[in-house]
Design a protein that fits this description.
It is a single chain. By secondary structure, the protein is mainly β. The chain contains 2 helices and 41 strands. The strands form 11 sheets. It has a 7-stranded antiparallel sheet with strand order 4-3-2-1-41-40-39, with no helix packed on it. The longest helix has 10 residues, at 8-17. The two termini are 34 Å apart. Residues 1-31 and 207-212 have low confidence and may be disordered.
Length: 500
């Protein structure tokens, strides 16, 4: 997401280095042999979506949350049920008004009936929406009343992040809910949701920076909620699942004990901030050296349109699962970089670290503004035992376009390397190049990716693409967001026919 920064040029830089994660929509007739395309359109603005099986037919359904075009403070929840042969209808099968108090949504089987429920967190607690074939969507039913961090009505947008987990050996699922003191864990047993744990993890930050478009030098007074990603991992290899909270600039962990409980304070916390405390930082948890312990990898970029420096750092966990304060290895880079992509891209049972890079500097910036094009470089690093290779194993390059008529010039540029669309067990990439094209590059065992696209699909203003599995098969599907600026908004569902 593009954020305001202290300099106009730096805001463009962060846009360039933040385009990494996703892709997009509709198709040329010649390419219909690979994907079946379904367009879901609403009159308004789509705030988020979640998937689940709400009628126990082993097909993935879709819930879409959107704000009305005529009133952005009225939000709706629409349920799109997948049909065995007809796919998805363009309009929601069921639609309800979402209460203004709702701030956070997830999907999961809370009550143990093997059917997914829609769980909501609002200012006063946790509620549930159930679906039945006879009555459709129910009104939200309060499961528990508790003060949450969303202590005021949430009238626009919504957090779409998991908070339902199977965490302990106790019956029922656990809900990890943000509350004023940090996080609370709730367990659903005997038709009752009860709080079992309280975890201290700070969630608010004061954003004191001057807005890039505000020339009055008045610092912002906004209080920003910083919701971390939650990772459930057996971090110390004792056979019990532990809780990791991962922010861009810090990580903390709560180890589960033999009594299926957690301490109130973290077993460890690691702050990883760029050296000048003003840069762009991202963090990832991954087992880097194949010892089954989760390690920490961070990337931090500081500087602006010039004087840019990036540091890639590795923090290897010890044999107790603790992540140290001091990094194990570091690589310094002299250009602008962004979110890391980390996965086993060549099937060697070790992760590769992929750094998407955009060349910066005065000459590069001039070229960008004159041609509205530049290259995205993928720098692919191997892991060597307990360190990162000093030089990339491969360098791949793909060109993309800017749209300077949009407040976010790279709003339609996105790169995703997490799906498998041809069922060859190698991860494939999807790249939206900013010119209305969805480009597919098949994975390669030695070259990592094809140099030219294996499949090209024309799209209508793609914004992001999310790899999913909608048919419970071995072929990857996509849910695509669009960058539409008018009365209507749309999601496109690309369902793989398995024809390759």
């Amino acid at each position: 997401m593009l954020k305001d920064t202290q300099k106009v040029f730096e805001s463009i830089l962060l846009a360039l280095v933040g385009f990494i994660l996703l892709t997009t929509t509709s198709v040329l007739a010649a390419d219909q042999d690979l994907f079946e395309i379904y367009g879901l359109e609403v009159e308004g603005h789509i705030d988020g979506f979640v998937t689940g099986d709400f009628n126990n037919d082993n097909l993935t359904d879709l819930v879409v949350i959107y704000s009305a075009h005529t009133n952005r403070y009225t939000r709706y929840l629409g349920l799109y049920l997948q049909k065995p042969t007809a796919g998805f209808r363009p309009r929601a099968d069921y639609l309800i008004t979402l209460p203004n108090s709702v701030a956070h949504i997830d999907v999961g089987d809370i009550d143990g009936d093997n059917i997914d429920d829609i769980a909501l967190i609002d200012s006063e607690g946790i509620s549930i929406i159930k679906y039945s074939d006879n009555s459709g969507l129910s009104e939200p039913k309060r499961l528990v009343s508790v003060s949450t961090i969303y202590s005021t009505s949430y009238i626009q947008g919504i957090f779409v992040e998991p908070f339902i987990y199977e965490l302990t050996n106790q019956p029922g699922n656990e809900l990890i809910v943000p509350t004023p003191g940090g996080y609370s864990i709730f367990n659903y047993v005997n038709n009752t949701l009860k709080r079992t744990e309280r975890l201290a993890a700070p969630l608010a930050e004061h954003m004191a920076a001057v807005n890039a478009k505000d020339f009055s030098s008045k610092k912002s007074m906004e209080l920003q909620l910083v919701i971390p990603g939650i990772k459930i991992i057996d971090g110390n290899l004792d056979g019990l699942l532990d809780i990791y909270f991962l922010w861009d600039n810090r990580v903390c962990c709560f180890f589960q004990n033999n009594e299926n409980s957690f301490g109130q304070t973290p077993d460890f916390i690691n702050f990883n901030i760029s050296d000048d405390h003003s840069g762009y930082t991202k963090s990832h948890l991954v087992d880097c050296n194949n010892d089954n312990f989760p390690d920490l990898i961070t990337i931090s970029t500081a500087g602006g349109i010039s004087n840019t420096e990036t540091k890639l750092r590795l923090y290897l966990a010890d044999q107790l699962g603790m992540i140290p304060e001091n990094f194990t290895d570091e690589i310094s880079l002299s250009d602008s970089y962004s979110n890391l992509l980390i996965n086993d891209y060549n099937s060697d049972n070790l992760p590769e670290i992929v750094i998407p890079a955009v060349e910066m500097g005065t000459f590069a910036a001039t070229k960008i503004f004159l041609t509205k094009k530049t290259d995205m470089h993928l720098l692919i690093y191997n892991m060597n035992a307990d360190n990162i290779s000093n030089e990339p194993d491969k360098r791949l390059r793909y060109e993309f376009r800017f749209d300077f008529t949009d407040i976010n010039p790279v709003g339609e540029v996105c790169f995703n390397w997490f799906g498998n669309y041809n069922s060859d067990q190698l991860l494939d990439a999807v790249f939206c190049d900013g010119g209305g094209r969805l480009l597919f590059f098949w994975g390669h065992p030695t070259e990592y990716l094809s140099k030219s696209p294996d499949l090209e699909i024309q799209l209508d203003h793609p914004s992001q693409a999310h790899p999913v599995n909608l048919n419970n098969d071995n072929f990857g599907d996509l849910i695509v967001e669009h960058n539409l600026r008018g009365r209507y908004d749309r999601l496109s569902l690309l369902i793989n026919k398995g024809s390759i």
